[in-house]
Amino acid sequence: MTAINSIHPAALHKYLWSHELLERKKSPHLPPPETILRYGAFVGSAIQCHASLERTMEHARRHIADSESQGISVISGTVILADTLIQSKGRFARSWHAPPGGLWGCMILADTFLSRARTLLPLALGVACCEAVRGLGIPEAHVRWVNDVLVRGQKLAGFLVESHRGLCHGEAFHLLGFGININNDSFPAELTGNAISLRRILDGPVDLPGFSLSFLAKLAWNIGLLCYEEERELHRWDGAGEQGNQAGHLLLDQWMKLSDTIGKKVLYGYDIQQKPLYEAVVTGINSDGALVMRLGDGTEIVEYGGELLYLETERTE
Amino acid sequence: MAEEIDFDAILSKYRADPYEYAEIYASQTGVVNFKVEEGSSVNCTSGEWQQIPGSPLFEITRERNTKLIAARINGTISSIRTDLEGQFVEAGEKLLTIRHPLKKKEVIENILKEVLYLFPAPERAKYFFSLDIQSRIEKRGTKALAIKPGDEIIIMSLMKRDTPIYYSGEAGVIHSVYFTPGVSMDQGQALIGICASDKLPLIQKVITRVKADWDKLVDPVHAEE
Question: Is A194 an interface residue toward B (CB < 8 Å)?
Answer without folding.
Answer: no
